[in-house]
Amino acid sequence: MAHILILGGTTEASALANVLAERGIPATLSYAGRVASPKPQPVPVRIGGFGGIEGLERYIGAHGITHLVDATHPFAATMSGHALAAAQATYTPLLTLTRRPWAPESGDRWQTVPDIAAAVARLAGPPRRVMLALGRMHVEDFAAQPQHRYLLRFVDAPAQRPALPDHHLVVDRGPFTVDGDTQLLRDHGVELVVCKNAGGTGAQAKLVAARRLGLPVLMIDRPPPTGARLVHGVGEVLEWLRHPADLGV
Ligand code: NAP
By alpha-carbon position, which residue is closest to atom 9 of ligand 1? Predict the structure, then answer.
């Protein structure tokens, strides 16, 4: 009997959980537990880290997991590395489900940097009004460039005040619209948007808004893929599930 473990925290993982539930294919969705109240799911949910690679191996064995789908966010590199190692150690077929990265379009003013550290370094210079569209993570790294006025947007209110001396925090989980984000950028006089190349539609509004306003974007590239087989659509996952001999790693 198949039992698919979906490593989630993304819209792709939720979409896959829906499709598997509709088809009556047993699946469990795993969340890291970063969001206070994740949205309800049509399959059983588990929350919290597994305890590293070995913990994930134990979970796979104890719960009879037959297939692993890594549908984590493209920047969740540690979890993806663990998934690959645990899949290899337990001979569990593994597939990565991820959205395509964004690509610049006509009118975009992007500068691309390889990682967060490079983005922080690129912010050296006179004070500017910067939207840090990175969620809650990595915000503290930008304390190294305290001269800027930062606009932050988090899904949940943080337990502690972010360590940026001059910032304005918006708590909102979206969905975000181009008109709404254009207004937000205007209201705060934003001069530069910093974001990760997450891809997908959910977080794209700010990029279209930046294009509309002619604002530059500092785009942080994705970490390198793990080497596991990678698909972009739920349909491709279903296709892969029909060919269990293909281990995908
Ligand atoms: P990460 O750095 O790759 O993972 C750190 C640790 O968190 C992992 O070693 C694992 O703990 C635990 N973990 C991560 N994803 C998990 C999952 N789906 N189920 C159970 N444990 C998980 O991950 P991250 O960048 O902190 O992201 C955490 C979660 O938020 C991910 O599920 C990701 O899909 C989602 N997310 C991330 C971003 C982002 O920009 N990074 C954006 C949106 C959503 P153990 O080693 O103990 O197993």
Answer: 79
> CATH assignment of 109-220?
3.40.50.720
Residue type, 71: A
- pTM as predicted: 0.89
Quote the pLDDT of residue 34. Answer: 84
Tens digit of pLDDT for each residue in 183-235? 999 999 999 999 999 998 878 999 999 999 999 999 999 999 999 999 999 99
Boundaries of every domain in the chain: 4-100+224-247, 109-220
48 C-alpha to center of ligand 1: Å?
Answer: 9
Question: Are 4-100+224-247 and 109-220 in the same CATH fold?
Answer: yes
Q: What is the CATH number of domain 4-100+224-247?
A: 3.40.50.720
pLDDT < 50 positions in the chain: 246-249
Ligand 1 interacting residues, C-beta cut-off 6 A: 7-10, 30-32, 34, 49-52, 55-56, 72-73, 75-79, 82, 135, 137, 196
Atom 32 (ligand 1) nearest CA: 9
Ligand 1, atom 40, lies closest to the CA of: 75
Give the full edge-to-edge strand order of the sheet including 45-47.
45-47, 27-31, 4-7, 67-70, 94-97, 230-231
Cα-to-centroid distance, 11 and ligand 1 (Å): 14
pLDDT score recorded for residue 244: 56
